[in-house]
Amino acid sequence: METTPFADDIRFHEQVDPHHRASRLSDIILGGQDGLVNVLGVILGVAAATSDARIVLAAGFAAAFAESVSMGAVAYTSTHAQRTLYDSEKLRELRHIEKVPRLERQEVYEIYQKKGFEGPLLEQIVDHITRNPDVWANEMMAEELKLAPIPPGAAWRSAIVVGVSAIIGSLIPLAPFIVLPVQTAMWLSIVIAAFTLFVVGAYNAHATTGNVHRSGLEMAVIGIASALVGYAVGLLFRAPVVP
Questions:
Q1: Nearest CA to 97 among 143, 121, 132?
Q2: Residues 45-79: pLDDT tens digits?
Q3: Is the separation of the CB atoms in 19 and 147 below 8 Å?
Q4: Residue pair 98/181 in contact by the 8 Å Cβ criterion
Q5: Rounded to whole angstroms, how far apart are CA atoms 210 and 227?
Q6: C-alpha–C-alpha distance, residues 150 and 146, integer Å
Q7: Range with lowest mean pLDDT among 16-25, 101-110, 165-174, 209-218
Q8: Radius of gyration (Cα) for the chain, nearest Å?
């Protein structure tokens, strides 16, 4: 099948453009990284305080499921709040367009004048935008308030993706404690978590045209350092060794 230059452009935009892919990764990385780091911190703290694997697993699984529900809820409420803000601000803009159209038209004029348009072309652009109140309001939302519309169902989709990613991320540092002694599992868990964070950071940088090695290293170092705070706290409550 022959391809046109325009078809090649579309394929590049949909399959190669890193910014397009990055927008789909944000919720996954948010949930997965948060779940992994938080649960790793919990189990390291508990493992530092006791060598009982059942206690470590109980604390880890409790934290994992609580974290996934909490992160999903936060993703839902934050996305829903953004949608509510957008809708309320758009209604306000529509009221302004109805009550003071001359002032609102002047704002559109000034926005495009600052973009470098002038003369008859500027007048044509302003006339075209202000011809339809909905288009007019959308333009003001994007150009004046810098707000983007949130599609219907986005809050639930974000909640599900973040929640599932959080539970998957949480289970990664827990896996070694299922089959290994606590002390051995603790160090293996740190290694696995650091490697996972590095890979996620590197992939995120690759998707957003960042520095792959630096991004991966930063995410690994910050994540492990945060989790080690839990280990330090656990040491304060370490159970005394019975002779």
A1: 132
A2: 998 888 888 999 999 999 999 989 999 999 999 99
A3: no
A4: no
A5: 25
A6: 13
A7: 16-25
A8: 25
